[in-house]
Amino acid sequence: MSIFKKLLVAATLSAAFFVHSAHAEDIKIALVVKSLGNGFFDAANKGAQEAAKELGGVQIIYTGPTKATAEAQIEVVNSLIAQKVNAIAISANDPDALVPALKKAMERGITVISWDSGVAPEGRQMHLNPSDTDLIGETIIKLAADHLPEGGDVAILSASSTATNQNAWIEAAKKVLPEKFPKINLVATVYGDDDSAKSTDEAKGLLKSHPNLKAIIAPTTVGVVAAAQVVTDENLIGKVNVTGLALPSEFKKFIDNGASQAVALWNPIDLGYSAVYLAHGLATKKTEAKPGAKLSIGRVGEVTLDDTNSAAMAAPFRFDKSNIEEFSKIY
Ligand code: RAM
Q1: What pLDDT score was predicted for residue 165?
Q2: Fewer CB within 10 A of the end CB, N or C, for the chain?
Q3: What angle do CA 167, 163, 130 make, to 5 degrees?
Q4: Which pLDDT belongs to residue 186?
Q5: What distances in angstroms separate CA 213 from CA 148, 171, 178, 197, 301, one per listed residue?
Q6: Span from the CA of 14 to the centroid of ligand 1 (angstroms)
Q7: Of ligand 1's atoms, which has the minimum distance to the CA of residue 130?
């Protein structure tokens, strides 16, 4: 081989090596969820993987604790700091408890955003809400009220008592109750911690303590399935309507059997996709999180940050007998 050819081969090899080693330099984005084993977050991860593929040179670390607690999430965050990830996109189990750990991450140059369930502004660069908080609050009450023309007792079965997103929706719901839904009587709010067994026990407890209950509103995809199963098992279909926020693929059977008339949700795949898109823009310094900034979320469009660097995506969809089959095939 001539010297020239040898050099050419060496150059080609090193170019190939360079291309290959770029993979080792992938931007690592951790998608931290409230807890693993939740179908809603698995769907968000699908969107995250899609965004990673589209953006190129991105590795998604899909992680979270087994139980939906802030303490367990702090451990996850600390281990991600040790792994030197480039970005953390977290759905938080508590708005404040995670702030010190996330601040530490930012001090080390890690991009931090929250999505789905937020952390306080000092613990992240921006927050992505799936939809407008007031709209979700009103939607979950309306879903119950639509089937209670005479009004009646309803109760809320939430996720954990510290979950930022559910607490904000419940607060928004309580705000609209007196004026817009005067005949709806909210008798209790209980917490199932996004754990099936605990949610089942809490749903049973509600039915026992409130024999006149007309609806259980669960603004959590885990709680709503547990409540609908309890209503089914206790032969209360037609007496107690279960509603709230549900993943169509997990909930279709309860629309089919009549335990629920209708539920709502946004597209969790688009949410995970958008969270990764935003984290990537900030981590690569292509974008900056500041009030008024318009940030691209790829095929989903664009969001605008408010004064607290929060943004909201689209209105939730309503699922009932007419459309749940179609959506259950997607998420
Ligand atoms: C559960 C989680 C999640 C919430 C959905 C609606 O999966 O609590 O944070 O957004 O329900």
Answers
A1: 98
A2: N
A3: 80
A4: 98
A5: 11, 21, 18, 21, 42
A6: 47
A7: 10
Look at the alpha carbons of 232, 234, 238, 244 in this order and tell me if their dihedral is positive or negative: negative
Q: What is the pLDDT of residues 138-158, one digit of tens each?
A: 999 999 999 999 999 999 999
Q: Which of 278, 242, 262, 274 shows the shortest CA–CA distance to 318? A: 262
The protein residue whose alpha carbon is closest to atom 11 in ligand 1 is 220
- The pLDDT assigned to 22 comes to 41
The confidence score (pLDDT) of residue 257 equals: 98
Distance 39 CA to ligand 1 centre (A): 9
Which parts of the chain have pLDDT scores under 50? Answer: 13-22
Query: Amino acid identity of 321?
Result: K
Nearest CA to ligand 1 atom 2: 220
Ligand 1 pocket: which residues have CB below 6 Å? 34, 38, 40, 91, 116-117, 159, 165, 194, 220-222, 245
147: burial class by Cβ within 10 Å (0-12, 13-18, 19+)? middle
pLDDT for the residue 6: 54
